[in-house]
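Bench notes, afternoon.
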Amino acid sequence: MTANIKIALAGNPNSGKTTLFNALTGARQHVGNYPGVTVEKKEGVCRRQGVTMQIVDLPGTYSLTGYSVEELVARSFIIDERPDVVVDVIDSSNLERNLYLATQLIELNVPIVLAFNMSDVARHRGFVFDIPKLSQLLGVPIVSMVGSRNEGIDELLKMVTEAARSGETPGTCRIRYGSEVEDELARIEAHLDPQHDLVARYGKRWLALKLLENDKEITELHHSPEVLAAVQFSREHLAAVFGEDPEIIIAERRYGFISGACQEAVQSSTELRHDMSDKADAVLTHPILGLPIFVGLMYLVFQLTFTLGEYPMVWMEHFLAFSGESLSAWWPGDPGPLHSLVVDGIIGGVGGVMVFLPNILLLFLAIAFLEDTGYMARAAFIMDHIMHKIGLHGKSFIPMLIGFGCSVPAIMATRILENRRNRLTTIMVIPLISCGARFPIYMMIIPAFFPNHRGLMLASIYFVGILLAIVLARLLRVTLLKGETLPFVMELPPYRLPTVRGLLIHTWQRGWMYVRKAGTVILAISIVIWAATSYPKMDAAALQNMTPEQVSTAELQHSVVGRIGKTLAPALKPLGFDWRISTSLVGAFAAKEVFVSQLGIMYSVGEAEEGGSEALRAKLQADYTPLQGFCVMLFCLISMPCVATIVITRQETGSWRWALLQLLGLTALAYVITMAVYQVGRVFV
């Protein structure tokens, strides 16, 4: 009789697969060998409720990486024969080790049912499985059973029949290997010809993954020189960054996926795959201690950023001051507009932002260290409980963490969130995370007004942003973006010691974005701002009998920038802002760092000085109060995402409506909150 359903039984050795095969097929089985190899091939027939099932018992394997004949046979059968369903028999008392094969079956994108065998042994060892939740996380149906006693077999066959008829694959479950590996997978995929037979047979992502893993069978297939060159480059790059071969990194990320799923859906797990990791996690992800430890670590990062960064920042200031003075001394003839443009506009504007580069590199280095050790994945896990309360998943915290560097890649990183409501919510609140562009503003204001509490103030403004993001996300999830929050797996990779090269690469990648912006966008804006602060000129007769300081102020107020600032000043006065701050905020819409350079340019106009952060801080201390300084940081934190952020929001959401809502909504929120803080603060100050 022709089989209605073809089933492949897969699983680790000693998982009970053969026992289940015998229970299903009884005497209706025969044994032979797979063509060309001596590996035993068992086939049998099972008839239930009018359905005939042809069952193939695949060789027992721990993975499908192609290192052994058994692995190759099992993998080739699934890829070439395309069974209607693959049943992965799992020893549920050794869950994490057995789920490694399941992750690779999921990546083959075939209909799968997981048979959690030996569930009696698992219960005896103290395991409690949330089967529905784990099934959602992995994207495949799961049945609990005891094959040796025929428990759960009827339910298994029912699930197998449903899976075969629906043909559904675990497409909603995709294992992410981290930004570095994902970038290299994308590089290899870009060189694969979609019309090639290999791509049709294996699929682009799976083929790229196997090439990156240096899978012998796959690498020996016919590939173009471009593909092989891309693979070689990617393997060497990842080995240099992580200090390990890519196959080891990929295996660790798979186990991280498994660990994250088990953390959420398994209680009383005694799995000790990474003994030191588990001991560290017992403390670092503790329900009570985890959050204070995270807060303390971030405070330490900010404190070290100030402490260690102070000396190179001073060196940078002296270098910029020396450059301005040397240029002024060398300049032939009387200083004119060109001299002012170079010294006040370019050196004063761009230099006012570049002076903070050492601090920013230190901040990025610290974050890269926490990411590469595996701790940042734990931070997302720690935040998972809080994120669930606001209608999101802890995985949404990962793009937010990326937002510490820049909002643009953070918004792009929301692609890891399959649920559209979760993704939109995360995109809308990411600008509330203090990016590197805001850092120069904090570095200018905090030492000026809070010199004795630098680390505390910096940590506070960062956590204010996180808190506001959480509150706003909750508001969005109960209003515009109502809906169920689907579970995701929180990957928990094992802890590892980062390589020096990897840290330097990750730090420079983020730092280079800052330098590139300073050399392009901020340079252009600084020149525009310089022109707008220098023109139109006042009549010389009107400046007679004025002191140099009065001349500078009068000319600045008469300029285009001064007029814009004066127009905005009445509306921003309730926030504690005058015309200078109001004008600087306009430039900050293009790029947040411009706020610092614009203030520097305005304060140096008419003074023929290159300024510097210390001189600028002194002027700010003379003109403003600590309360006003804090309100400036608060407003810059919440309001007006930069132009690049608005554009990427439009791109990722597919609608200007969300981008404009982000721009106008956050600016309105900034206005209300800053005004409340300033008005209440005046009562107590």
